[in-house]
Structure formats: C-alpha cells, structure tokens
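Need residues for this backbone.
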C-alpha cells in the first residue's frame, strides 16, 4: 500500500493544484443574499469533512488507495469551499466595519479559516468540532441585533 501511495500522491497533488474553478457569490453587488443558507452550507461542509476524515481513517487500514485518495480530495474540496464562503461571502461582502461586534466577527471568521486549514492538514476530529463551535459562535454574533 505504501508503495502505491508513493506513486499516487504526486498525481493527486498535481491534479489538486492545477486549475480549479473558484465559485463565489457575485461581487457586483447583486443584493441577493441568503445569510442563513450560507451558515447551513458551512455546517454541511463540516459534516462532509468529518465523514471524509472517518473514511480516511478506515481506509488507511485497507489497501484501497484509490478510495483513500478520493476521500482525501473530498475533504480538501469541502474545506476549500468552506473557506471560500467565509472569505468571499462573509469577509468580502457581508461584514461591515460600521456594524456592531465587528472585531469579534473578524476574529471568529479568521479562526474558522484557520481550523478549516487544520481540517485539510489532518484527520483530527477535534479540528472539525472546533469548526462547528466557531460556526455556532459566528451565527450568534452575526444575527445578534446591532448595538
């Protein structure tokens, strides 16, 4: 198995780091925002990341490197999509300096980006658990009445 991974991993990295489309909400601005849906999407990405982590751990015991690689790529893809929503949707378009709790929102969003990165780097479910906690904290901050 180790030998097949030695050959497969460079291919995976080549495929992963070549041109990949970036999908973001428009920056016109179109005025069409569904913030609750974006929070739900973040939660769904975390669930998928966790499933991927569990499958990776299970497949590491077997010699099915093809499926292992597919789950690694899936985890990476959903962590990237998570980061895309945080950066392109919330940080770029929705968080305004003149609204209440600006600093707290920025801090939580930054932590979300960091823990999404940690989810890419490992299969440690503590990172995805922290990500869930941060999304919940952000949800509370974001939808709190403005002061």
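Answer:
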């Amino acid at each position: 198995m180790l030998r097949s991974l030695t050959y497969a991993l460079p291919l995976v990295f080549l495929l992963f780091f070549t041109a990949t489309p970036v999908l973001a909400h428009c920056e016109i601005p179109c005025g069409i925002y569904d913030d609750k849906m974006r929070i739900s999407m973040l939660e769904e990405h975390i669930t998928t990341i966790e499933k991927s982590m569990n499958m990776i751990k299970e497949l590491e015991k077997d010699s099915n490197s093809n499926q292992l690689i597919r789950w690694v790529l899936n985890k990476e893809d959903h962590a990237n999509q998570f980061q895309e929503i945080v950066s392109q949707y919330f940080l770029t378009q929705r968080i305004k300096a003149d609204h209440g709790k600006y600093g707290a929102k920025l801090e939580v969003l930054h932590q979300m980006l960091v823990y999404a990165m940690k989810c890419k780097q490992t299969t440690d479910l503590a990172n995805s658990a922290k990500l869930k906690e941060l999304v919940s904290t952000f949800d509370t901050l974001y939808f709190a009445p403005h002061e």
